[in-house]
């Protein structure tokens, strides 16, 4: 389902096997297991939730609209856009850019839509304003036939849902937003989008069993966390996901928040970046190979591409080559991996059988566990985000002062 290859990260020479063994990962492992077992942190228990019948009434709409920010939408986008990269009918309103939001709403038939308003706090500015943009349009429709569903635990949006008798799903309080993809936050809209959410949970559960192992070389989440932690301590604090599966680009958006918001505290933190192979070989590979040696590269590749065909073409010497189209990108990934390793750039590789519900569930859950372990290694709270609150206060004051000028 998912294979993790780490040898190049040790071959590069700056960290050796003994450095990995010398990290007190046993402590990190037992601390995280304790938090998960006593319910301090709930992102494991939710993947064993059996009650998916509660989503039954949420299918059958032509359009699925999701309004949310950060962890309230990024996981859903990551999974759906990986599984169905070319499908229409999904509308993700995840920013306050008027051009993006209003152009999306222009072509949207709300009567044929199920609209999710998702905000754990219920007070996120963008989600609130984007909801009102939709509300304003719905109020002009006689006999609205669509459906509005709120997924929230409180605040202004919960009060709005209660006032209008909209259905409300709650989010377990011990699951931070960026870890909430395996709760109703992700599962409800994904169910509406026709995704097999049981398979997503099955993938996460299989990865959970793999991660219940304190033998670090059998636990990809723990090992990848320790490798990134060790290299961070050596000044390689940029984590580049280089995916040779373009439909994983939205996974990159989810990864950025998970890593950035969980670990960016008390002066610590690694910087998450996403590159798409093979095309970023023509834009960033020069930097990765010959620029500052401050990065750890994580390759992502699929064993099998869902579309493929045999090709025959002539190379630059007019010699015929016959291969599968996917052999090209696989060769490019391998060549880039060899070149990076030859040039002392540490890299690891995640290979998934193919993109599907099960592998996506496993991939996202692996990173939730990895960040849990890394929070223990850095001895920080990986589950809050206090630094983002100041901007929100300043912004609300600015908006309130600006409204007099309208
Ligand atoms: O789900 P909410 O409460 O709307 O929060 C959205 C996002 O905003 C943050 O709180 C950061 O501002 C994230 O942690 C969270 O995922």
TrEMBL record:
One of its GO terms (biological process) is glucose 6-phosphate metabolic process. Gene3D superfamilies: Glucose-6-phosphate isomerase like protein, domain 1. One of its GO terms (molecular function) is carbohydrate derivative binding. Pathway: Carbohydrate degradation; glycolysis; D-glyceraldehyde 3-phosphate and glycerone phosphate from D-glucose: step 2/4; Carbohydrate biosynthesis; gluconeogenesis. Coiled coil: none annotated. The active site is at 261 (proton donor), 282, 392. InterPro entries: G6P_Isomerase, GPI, Phosphoglucose_isomerase_CS, SIS_dom_sf, SIS_PGI_1, SIS_PGI_2. Its EC number is 5.3.1.9. It catalyses: alpha-D-glucose 6-phosphate = beta-D-fructose 6-phosphate. It is an enzyme of class 5 (isomerase). GO terms for cellular component: cytosol. Belongs to the GPI family. HAMAP family: G6P_isomerase. This is Probable glucose-6-phosphate isomerase. It comes from Methanocaldococcus vulcanius (strain ATCC 700851 / DSM 12094 / M7) (Methanococcus vulcanius). The gene is pgi.
